[in-house]
Amino acid sequence: MSKNGISLGLALAFTSLASTAASYAPDGRSNAMGNIGVATADYLVAPLYNPALLAVFHKSDDIGILLPAIGVNAKDADSSLETITDLQDTIEEFENSGYNNPGFEADINNYLNELDGNAPVNITAGVAFAIAIPSNNVSVSIYGRGYVEVISRIHVDNASGTAQGRYEASTVEVTGFGYSELGVALAKKYTIYGESFSFGVTPKYQILQTYSDITTVSDFDVELDESDAEVTAFNFDLGAVWMKNNYRVALAIKDVLAQEIQSTTNKTYEMTPQATLGLAYAAEYFTFGVDVDLTEQTRYVDVDDNTQFARVGVEVNAWHWAQLRAGFEHDMQDTMEDSLTAGIGISPFGTLNLDVAGSYGSDNQVGASASLSFTF
Fold first, then answer.
1. Host H or E run for residue 163
2. Could you report the per-residue pLDDT of 204-233, keeping only the tens digit for each?
3. Would you list the domain boundaries of the chain?
4. Are 281 and 246 contacting, i.e. CB atoms less than 8 angstroms apart?
5. 72-83 burial string, b = 16+ CB within 10 Å, else e?
6. Which CATH architecture has domain 7-375?
7. DSSP for residue 220
8. Can you tell me the distance from the alpha carbon of 276 to that of 336, in angstroms, rounded to the nearest whole number?
9. What's the pTM value of the predicted model, to 2 decimals?
C-alpha cells in the first residue's frame, strides 16, 4: 500500500524521462521569466523555443553546453494526493484492527466523499540537454529533450454499503503521455534591405508514447515502466527573428507536421503545430519580453485540457555575474491557473551558468526548474 500518493506521478515522470525529449521546456532562465523565450531565449536553449535565436549570440561565444536542464510542474486543484495519502494510512489502520473499527470506517467514508468528484491531478516533468556552436556562417546545435504529462482521475464507488466495499471498488485511472526528441538546429543571420533578420530550422526525430493503468485507491502506488503505445516520426520546427537596435519581433512554429497517438484505452493525444509570437526589448543589462500563443495546444482529445498562453517576463542582469528574473503567464483556455514565476541566475566569469526558477499558481499548482550550462 502506498504511503505517498504523489510518488506515482513523480516516479513515472523521471523513469520515462531518463530515456531522452515539445511544448514543455525545462529551462531555469526562461521558466523564471514567465516561460517566455521566442524572442528572448539564449542561443544555447534556442532549439527549445525558437531555432532562429541560435544565430543571436555575443562575439565572445564559441561553444555552449547545457547539461542538464530539469523541471517539474504539478496541479492538484482539490488536494487529492494529500487526501489519498490520508485515506491509505487510515485503510491500513483499519485493516490492522481486524476490519472492525467504526471510527476508522467513518474516516474512510469521509475521505472517499472528499475525493468524489475531484478534478484530475496533473503532473508534468521534463529534461533537456544541448551542445551549441554559434557561427557567423551557420550556427549549429545538437540537442535533446523530453517530458511526460500524467493525469490521474479518481473514480469513487458509492454503490457499496460498507467502507471496505467502497475503497475496494474505488479506482484511480492514470493516463500518461511521454514525448522525446533529438534534433539538430540550424540558424543564420541575414541583412535584408538594411534590416537584420535571423532564420532557423530544426529537423528532429520524435518518439510519442502513452501510458495507462487502473488501480484501486488503496493500492495507488503503481509505477508504469512500459508504454502501451508508441509512435515515431520525423518533424521540424521553424523560427524567425527581426532585430532593430535592442528590439526584437519573433515567430516560432513548433511541430509543423501534426502527430497523434492512441493508447490501448482508446485515449487520443494530439500534437498539433503551435505558432507563438514573441516581442522583446533585449539590452545588455535588462531584458523584457512577451510571448503569445497564436494557436492552442490540443493535448488529450477526449479531455478538456487545451492550453493557449500569454506570457510576460523580465530580467535584470548584474554585470553578467548574477541575474534576477520574474514573470507571469495566463492560460487563455483557462485550463491552468494564472502563474507568477521568479528565479535567479549565477554566472561567474560568464562561463558557469546556474539558473533556478519557481512558479506559483495557487497552493495546489506549483513548479520548479533548474539548469546548468557552460559557455566558452
1. helix 163-169
2. 999 999 988 889 999 886 566 678 899 999
3. 7-375
4. yes
5. bbbbbbbebbeb
6. Beta Barrel (2.40)
7. -
8. 18
9. 0.87
